[in-house]
Amino acid sequence: MPRTTGRFLDIRRDPHSGELLARGGDAEAHSLLQRAGFVAVIRLHESYHRAPSA
Fold first, then answer.
1. DSSP letter string over the chain?
2. Fewest 10 Å CB contacts: which of 7, 20, 25, 53?
3. Whose CA is closest to 34, among 48, 19, 45?
4. CA distance 38 to 54
5. Between the CA of residue 49 and those of 18, 44, 46, what are the distances in Å?
6. Rounded to an integer, what distance in angstroms lies between the CA atom of residue 7 and that of residue 26?
């Protein structure tokens, strides 16, 4: 059975800032998010995508 680890993508609005954030997913999901206009945020211990502010 193939592994599905990393295939799940969580997209939700942050309750503190109100930003729309996407976490998780694989390389294909990250590529689709970037093509859809999401901005990649890469930090020391995590990476995620956020919707543009405009």
1. ----TT--EEEEE-TTT--EEEEE--HHHHHHHHHTTPEEEE-SS-EEEE----
2. 53
3. 48
4. 11
5. 14, 14, 10
6. 5
